[in-house]
Design goal:
The complex is a heterotrimer.
Chain A (H helix, E strand, L loop, with lengths): L2 H29 L3 H4 L14 H8 L3 H33 L5 H11 L4 H15 L5 H25 L3 H10 L3 H12 L1 H17 L2 H6 L8 H7 L8 H21 L1 H13 L1
Helix pairs in contact in A: 1-13, 3-13, 4-7, 4-10, 4-12, 5-7, 7-10, 8-9, 10-14, 12-13
Chain B lengths: L5 H36 L1 E2 L9 E2 L3 H7 L2 H33 L5 H13 L2 H12 L5 H9 L12 H29 L3 H9 L4 H29 L3 H6 L11 H11 L3 H29 L1
Antiparallel strand pairs in B: 1-2
Chain C lengths: L3 E10 L2 E11 L4 E5 L6 H9 L6 E6 L2 E2 L10 E4 L11 H11 L4 H15 L14 H14 L4 E5 L7 H18 L2 E6 L2 H7 L2 E6 L2 E6 L1 H6 L4 H6 L6 E7 L5 E2 L6 E2 L12 E6 L4 E4 L10 E11 L3 E8 L2 E8 L9 E6 L5 E4 L9
Parallel strand pairs in C: 3-8, 3-9, 6-7, 7-8
Antiparallel strand pairs in C: 1-2, 1-4, 4-5, 9-10, 11-12, 11-14, 12-13, 14-20, 15-19, 16-17, 16-19, 17-18
Helix pairs in contact in C: 2-3, 2-4, 3-4
Classes of the chains: A mainly alpha, B mainly alpha, C alpha+beta.
Chain lengths: 274, 296, 362
């Protein structure tokens, strides 16, 4: 390639990077300003003074915002563990056990994955109310698991399909039963698939909004996206608090994404192709 | 002779054991609620069961036909989808082509594509809401200083501008997802096709027209349909960005249904809206599955 | 060690028949090769013996016990897979000892057995390595070792050499042969490679489209192919086959060329109007063009193409307008365009019924 297209290429890449990052950069800058700096005109582009006061305040004055983040963690981890264990078994059976109707079951799973969450709300709210599952981690973890299971089954099934069948057959000749094959052969061999799928499900759960909004009605039980969105209350928007809480709430997903970018990228695109 | 000997029967038995938990959860969380929504939408009851369920037929649907706010939210949803999806597609294809080139700093570029996807939509809406702020927002500051706008603009206060603002946030966040799917499609195109194209004397544009685009059709279809279904159920974006305002100009079907159910506490009327939305999305999802099957 | 008996064994998926019911007795200690093109049912047959595939009909006996519904691990069989099927996350020793461990054999005894087999296969230095760090040939040895350690009644091989490069394949083939001589365990070996089949087998079973075409020693399938399919499949380059019609004087004429052959001695051609006559490329004698004369088995021909393979050369000939291939000595052979004469040795002719494709009785 000659020089001119290289320059164009790099400017386009640069532009994309800037456009992708500026909202997050602006958010972080806002969180580092004091209240006067946030509400100043002309706008302060660089915090003056640069202060961590807002972060300190969150810990001392509005710890409920940290509680939201903790809730998100509990729900996210619970949902990821449950989804992977339940979905792993199903994905294995549907991709590897030569079950009858496996194709039909996979299509059913794919179809229900497209149900809009809002359509679940009236009945789910009512059912959870009756079962006493509103405002419980168990309830929301179960709901998120239901929401993300179809994706998990499809992803893991496509990972299992990449393993050579002969290994399982050799294991059967060696005398292993189905459960043993699953736990001592399939699991160790497909952990990259489990990692990628688990990370994506965790991010899905962390970001999920409608069910978290409706099934957690008590303030103390809210997840981060819901709690922070509802924090402003009726009148004023305390942006110094909101921006800081938002930074804290997005750090986990952004850090995970940054560290595991290759796995996540692979996981996202694998699901679309199959 | 015996068609199912023990090997097959045992495999089947174990298989059923392995898939049962998944189908139980799916039945409880996904299937039963949808069925129940349909039941609720043709009846009258109260959430707590105080008012016993009574069948009212299509009463709530009839009421919807006369509900201006329903029609408005439907058109908001459709307009939002119809504008943002094509924009996302163009940007997504562009980004994918860019990502498919080799250059230094690929890791950073990959993050630039993944970060918008990974951000929680609701919090992302808050971030943008602050940048759109009429008094202290970044956009007005930059706009005024560069002379693009003459006076501060109330981005989220005007009906048309609010819709445009919402589209921009959505396009910013989801073009990258589109790009990821299309990139995967791009990478599955065999390199030697381009080499053959070069031997045939194709220009880069002709390569794109004659090789890339036709072979990308499948991935583009998949991306379009997934994203359309997503856009049709947009909920937390207007919830956090505009609360549906001004004057319901950004109130999507999902948001309106939520308000009817949980703010007006009209479970049955809200269920009718939800069922209509479900029908639209389900038809689209059938199209999706058909497309996928067709592709194989 | 045991004999294996397949009695009216057949396999179908839904309505589609994959293997037609057949009988086969595999003798104790025999090396039996299932040979055929892909999709002929040879692998399915092997997998039915292994217990990886259910048996739709018939009975499978190993030793004298019916095995149809016995779990693979209890059949006394061990299998070597095409792509080795080693557990990538376990060491060589763990791979080899897995079956014994699952049988709850004492650890010391497992180690002893592994050490013995590793020594025999030259794997001792690699016992603690994972399969990923081994070469293809070493992995193949581990896969074989895993089978030997179990001291099975029957060895099953599913195209075990097809992932190796040509040189290694020859070497492993010889090792397998030595191994069988040493251990004497009944072996069933699936391959599509006729050289492997000819060199390894005590008997070859040639399959085509789910049906057994012939069972015989390598000598028999080469010398007396039972069907036209076997005739074409065994031997390289393939046998020349011509369609001939019977004429009133008892001679045979081709409709597509000027080829005329005299009455075929030794074949029962009664009632046959159209037959297929075959001759192997190595059974044709090249003579000077002037040799055409009284002997009706000497025919005029012309060299269309001459290819040197090394020791041999292949001649593509036009004999009375019929295209045939002849294998000749590579030192001195006629060149392209040369006119010559060909003698088809009548004792080495083959003849098949045109419709049933079966060999005509001698």
């Amino acid at each position: 390639m000659n020089k001119r297209p290289r320059i164009i290429l790099y400017s386009l890449v640069g532009l994309s990077v800037v456009i992708s990052f500026f909202p997050i950069v602006w958010l972080v800058l806002t969180s580092l300003k004091n209240t006067a700096g946030i509400y100043s005109w002309p706008v302060q582009y660089w915090p003056d003074p640069l202060t961590f006061q807002n972060y300190w305040s969150i810990f001392t004055e509005t710890p409920e915002l940290l509680r939201y983040v903790l809730n998100s963690f509990i729900v996210g981890v619970g949902c990821t563990v449950l989804t992977l264990s339940v979905g792993g078994l199903a994905g294995y059976a549907l991709s590897r056990l030569r079950m009858r109707f496996a194709g039909v079951l996979m299509v059913i799973i794919l179809s229900v994955s497209m149900f809009p969450p809002i359509a679940l709300l009236p009945a789910l709210f009512q059912t959870f109310l009756n079962l006493g599952l509103l405002n419980s981690f168990t309830g929301l973890i179960l709901a998120h698991t239901g929401l993300f299971l179809p994706y998990t089954v499809w992803m893991l099934a496509s990972y299992f399909r990449t393993l050579p069948v002969e290994i399982e057959e050799a294991a059967r000749l060696d005398g292993m039963g189905f459960l043993r094959i699953f736990f001592s052969i399939i699991l160790p061999l497909s952990w990259p698939g489990f990692v990628a799928t688990g990370l994506i499900v965790f991010i899905f759960s962390w970001n999920e909004f409608p069910l978290s909004l409706v099934l957690m009605t008590q303030d103390a039980m809210r997840t981060a996206p819901v709690g922070i969105s509802l924090y402003p209350g009726e009148f004023a928007f305390p942006w110094e608090t909101i921006s800081t809480a938002t930074v804290i709430a997005i750090i986990p997903v952004l850090v995970i994404t940054a560290i595991f970018q290759k796995q996540i990228l692979g996981g996202l695109t694998a699901g679309s192709g199959k | 002779m015996n068609a199912f000997n023990t090997l097959e029967r045992r495999t089947q038995f174990v298989g059923i054991g392995f898939v049962t938990p998944t189908f139980l959860v799916i039945a409880l969380i996904l299937v039963y609620p949808v069925v129940q929504s349909i039941v609720l939408s043709v009846g009258q009851s109260s959430v707590d069961g105080f008012e016993p369920y009574r069948f009212v037929g299509l009463e709530h649907y009839a009421a919807l036909m006369d509900d201006e706010r329903f029609w408005r939210s439907l058109s908001v949803t459709l307009i939002f989808t119809a504008i943002s999806i094509p924009l996302e597609l163009v940007l997504g294809v562009g980004l994918a082509l860019l990502m498919n080139e080799s250059f230094h700093g690929k890791g950073l570029a990959r993050l630039a594509v993944l970060f918008p996807w990974a951000l929680p939509t609701a919090l992302n809406a808050l971030i943008w809401r602050w940048m759109y702020n009429a008094d202290y927002g970044l956009f007005n500051a930059v706009g005024l200083e560069s002379g693009i706008i003459g006076e501060p603009v109330n981005w989220l206060g005007d009906e048309t501008l609010a819709m445009a603002s919402m589209v921009i946030v959505s396009v910013w966040k989801t073009s990258s997802f589109m790009a990821l799917i299309i990139l995967a499609g791009l990478q599955s195109i065999p390199r030697d096709l381009y080499e053959a194209g070069r031997m045939d004397g194709m220009s880069r544009w002709q390569e794109f027209r004659e090789i890339t685009l036709p072979l990308l059709k499948g991935s583009i279809m998949v991306a379009l349909i997934i994203r359309s279904m997503d856009a049709l159920r947009t909920f937390e974006l207007p919830f956090s960005l505009t609360d549906g305002g001004p004057d319901s100009a950004t109130e999507t079907l999902s948001l309106y249904a939520y308000k009817v159910i949980f703010e007006f506490v009209e479970f049955n009327a809200g269920s009718a809206i939800v069922v209509v939305q479900f029908a639209v999305i389900f038809l689209l999802s059938l199209l999706y599955i058909f497309t996928l099957r067709h592709k194989d | 060690m045991a004999n294996v008996s397949l009695q009216q064994i057949g396999k179908s998926y839904g309505g589609a028949v994959a293997v037609e019911a057949f009988n086969l007795e595999i003798r104790d200690g025999e090396f039996l090769v299932l040979l055929g093109p892909s999709g002929c049912g040879k692998s399915t047959t092997l997998r039915m013996i292994a217990g990886l595939e259910s048996i739709t009909r018939g009975d499978l006996l190993i030793g004298d016990a019916r095995m149809n519904n016995v779990d693979p691990k209890n059949r006394g069989v061990a299998m070597v897979f095409q792509n080795y099927a080693l557990y990538p996350h376990k060491t060589v020793a763990e791979n080899m000892g897995m079956a014994l461990k699952l049988q709850k054999m004492p650890k010391a005894e497992i180690e002893e057995r592994i050490a013995g087999v590793a020594d025999m296969l030259g794997l001792t230095a690699y016992l603690d390595r994972k399969p990923g760090s081994l070469s293809g040939g070493q992995r193949q040895r581990v896969a074989i070792g895993r089978a030997i350690v179990r001291t099975p009644e029957v060895f099953l091989f599913d195209e075990p050499l097809s992932n190796l490069d040509a040189k290694l394949r020859v070497k492993m083939r010889m090792e397998l042969q030595e191994l069988h001589d040493r251990l004497g365990v009944t072996s069933v070996y699936v391959t599509h490679d006729q050289v492997e089949a000819m060199t390894l087998a005590d008997r070859i079973v040639i399959m085509d489209g789910g049906v057994i075409a012939q069972v015989g020693t390598p000598r028999e399938v080469y010398d007396k192919p039972a069907t036209e399919f076997v005739a074409g499949f065994i031997g390289s380059p393939a046998m020349n086959l011509m369609t001939m019609q019977s004429a009133a004087d008892g001679s045979w004429r081709s409709n597509e060329s000027q080829l005329v052959l005299p009455r075929l001695p030794g074949f029962d051609t009664k009632g046959a109007n159209t037959i297929r006559v075959g001759i192997r490329p190595e059974h044709m004698t090249i003579l000077d063009a002037s040799a055409v004369g009284d002997d009706p088995w000497i025919l005029p021909g012309k060299v269309m193409l001459a290819e040197l393979l090394g020791a041999d050369a292949l001649l593509t000939l036009s004999v009375c307008g019929e295209t045939m291939t002849a294998r000749v000595n590579g030192v001195d052979y006629p060149e392209q365009g040369q006119q010559l004469a060909v003698r088809l040795n009548p004792e080495q002719l083959h003849a098949f019924d045109h419709d049933s494709k079966k060999a005509l009785q001698v």
